[in-house]
Structures are given as C-alpha cells and as structure tokens.
Specification:
With about 425 residues, this protein is of the alpha/beta class. It has helices spanning about 5-10, 15-20, 35-45, 85-90, 105-110, 140-145, 190-200, 215-225, 240-250, 275-280, 290-295, 295-300, 335-345, 400-410, 415-430, and strands spanning about 25-30, 55, 75-80, 95, 115-120, 130, 150-155, 160-165, 165-170, 175-180, 210-215, 235-240, 265-270, 285, 305-310, 315, 320, 325, 330, 350-355, 360, 365, 365-370, 385-390, 390-395. The strands form six sheets. It has a nine-stranded mixed beta sheet with strand order 8-14-13-12-11-15-20-24-25, sandwiched between helices. Strands 4-3-2-1-5-7-10 form a seven-stranded parallel beta sheet. A three-stranded mixed beta sheet has the order 17-16-23, with helices on one face. The structure holds coenzyme A.
Amino acid sequence: MSWQQLYESKVISVEEAAGKVKSGDRVVLGHAVGEPAAVIDEMVAHKENYKDVEIVHMVAMGKAGYAQPGMEEHFRHNAIFVGGTTRDAVASGRGDFTPCFFSEVPKLFRTSLPVDVALIQVTPPDEHGYCSFGVSNDYTKPAAECAKLVIAEVNDQMPRTMGDCFIHISEIDYVVESSHPVIELKPARIGEVERAIGENCASLIEDGATLQLGIGAIPDAVLLFLRDKKDLGIHSEMISDGVVELVEAGVITNKAKTIHPGKIVVTFLMGTKKLYDFANNNAMLEMYPVDYVNDPTVIMKNSKMVSINSCVQVDLMGQVASESVGLKQISGVGGQLDFVRGSNMCKDGKSIIAMPATAAKGTVSKIVPLLDEGAAVTTSRNDVDYVVTEFGIAHLKGKNLRERARALINIAHPNFREGLIKECENRFHQQF
Ligand code: COA
C-alpha cells in the first residue's frame, strides 16, 4: 500500500476521533500552540462519554475546557506546568501538578506516566509521507513515539519545521483533517522597567554568545539591546518573534556556535504568524525533542552559552523561587534549571535570573529575607549565577552568604532596602 492510500485509510471525523478515547485513559496533549484543539474540544463538549480521563499537558494555550468546574468526574488535569487557563484548577483541587524538569518529561512518558493516547497536531505529509510536528516538537514527538494510540490533527496551516521533527504516516493511527491558523501569542508590552532589565542583561552578552531566552516582556526587552552585537546564536527551549527581527538585522547568524553551527536550535515556538512564516521550511531553524535541546550536557557544549529566565522571588542566600507564590503553584520549573545547569557547566557560560525588583504593582519586593512559606525552590543557591533587576546586576557565584546579601540588596528596589539591611544586620551580626 502506498503511503497515500495508508493516509486515506486513517482519515476519520472529529467525532469518531473523540470516540477512540476511553474512560480511564491517560491522554497527552500536543504542547502549547501545537495543541490539537478540535479533538479535545469535542471531548469536552461530550463530557458525559468519559469518566476519569487524565489529561496531561504543560503550557495549555487552548481553552483548557477539561480543567473547568463541572468536569471533575469526567476529566482530571495533570499539569507538568501551570498557566493562566489551568492555575485555578490546580489551586482549587480540580487538577494536579507533577513536578518535572522539561528535559525529563519524555522519560516520564516512557516510564512512570505511560501514555494511552497522544493527541497531536502536525503538517500534512510531504512527498515521502512524513508529517512535521511544526511549532511543538518538545515532549509531543516522544509522547507520540511511546503512546498506545496516536491521533493526529493534520492542519495545512501548520508550518513545516525541520530537524528531528517528523513522524511518518505509518506511525499515526488516526488522522483528523483541519485547516486553521496556529494559535498566536502577541508580543508582551515592554515598559521602562523591562527595558532597564533588558539593557542590564544585554551588557552580560558578548559577541559570539549562544542564547536561551524564555517567554515574555523581559526576553523581548533583552533582544532590543542586542542590535549592536555580532554573530549571536540561539540554542533555546523556545523562541518568539523578537528573534526573527535579529536574524533579519544580521545579528543572529549562529556562525560562532560550536554545536549546530549556522542553525537556530529550539524545541518549540510560540509567537505570531511572523514567527511561524519564518519557521516554515527554513533550514536555518532546527527543532529537536526536549530531551535533546534541554539536556544540560548538550547545552554546555555551546560556547559562551547565556541563559535568561525569570522568577517570583529570590532570598538573600540566592535561592530562587520561580514557580510558586508560597504554596500556590503558578507555573513550573519548565526548562529553567536545564538551562541554568547547562550554562553553568559551559566553560565560558553564564546563567541569568532576570526579574523586576517588585511585584503586585510595586507593593512587594521580589528580593526577600526568606521565601514565602511553602514556596518551591526552583534554582538552588548552589546553581544561581547572575541575578538582574532594573537596578543592576548581582553576580552571586563565588560569593559567600554575606556578600550575596549585600549584592542583592544593591539591586533591590530602594523602598525595600532598609528592611533588608536590618534583616542582614541581625543575621550577620555586623553593620551593612
Ligand atoms: N509576590 C506575590 N505575587 C507575585 C510575585 C511575588 N513575589 N511575583 C509574581 N507574582 C504574581 C504576579 O503578580 C502575577 O499575578 P497575576 O497573574 O495575578 O497578575 C503572577 O504572580 C505571575 O507573575 P508575572 O510577573 O506576571 O509572571 P511572568 O509572566 O513575568 O512570568 C514567571 C514569571 C516566574 C512565572 C515565569 O518566568 C516562570 O514560570 N518561570 C519558571 C519557568 C521557566 O523559567 N521556564 C524557562 C523559560 S521558558
């Protein structure tokens, strides 16, 4: 049978696809903007057909209907990362949170969380019958490789990305055809605070550096201050639109990269159509599964690796809480520690935790004597390297606890410095 005949034999309707998922199944959803919305939305619309279906996901960019009130008996959300649409479900007990480094999620699916159904979204097959995972390779490809059943939404508007990013039609059990724009994430608003943080971070980036940038206003602001740099490279969990502008400006060339020279290496994309058009059939951009891209022993092979991530709180020892406000889980470790460790292990690497000095409209300091009770430490005091705010840069690696406290107070918001100094004078029995 030709692959074309094979493909035709697998095409079913959305309703039929939803009917393939059984009560009690563990379903892994394609990640972030690669979520196959049609089938999961159909399942939610007919919730009465399901009991105790576990929905495993990370950054949920779709409607997350399965996590809403009233779904408890039918679906239970197991979040490896909590986002805007799933925070309430986890906080109010309708969902669960499973801590795991992003780099280890594929192993989770191969060992402790075996996958019954992988619901994925891919491009139509190429002339050899291979579909690209498009915007989300990450854990989606590994989940499809180990799932008992693979249901693929084949979207003709999904960009065809390159790298180790393909699945052959013979590896897919059922196909649902669709045609819709990929979910877009608009660029964040960059204010004065973010600009100052961006400028401080950019001062730590040398020509020829390889970058990992997270999502949001701070990474976007960093990119604004890189226009005079030369031959930057990208090895990052994800990228958004700002990277495209720097490629077009000739700043990101990837020429100085020591692994994958000439290539942007990422595991997922999240931005606007501008990014997706850039990624489509672009041999400069390679997508690999997250257990490769985020593997610290791979990251460390880049030269001048610089990672930039954000957090909720830093205490005066340099312990970084990035995923919970006290006991309330607001996100997850994601790839933060994968890149902190990979950059620290890189012989000339730097890892940066960048954050505004205050939160909640300036009413609380993010630099605190003690983390809020119940907060999870994401980046430990042994891992932390640079902390950056709008007030400056604190290089903590190699500093003792007293020196760390001093360096952090210097970059705290002036309104909170006096309180932090008093705390240090008690703690270290000397004037600060
Ligand atoms: N005290 C109280 N509340 C705080 C707080 C603090 N110190 N810091 C943040 N918050 C609140 C904010 O007010 C906001 O609440 P709201 O949604 O009700 O307005 C919420 O927590 C989220 O904070 P915000 O600053 O808007 O988040 P962000 O979009 O800039 O993301 C992180 C910051 C830390 C949540 C995010 O970077 C993260 O999840 N990091 C860990 C994962 C990671 O680094 N992955 C690798 C890169 S992709």
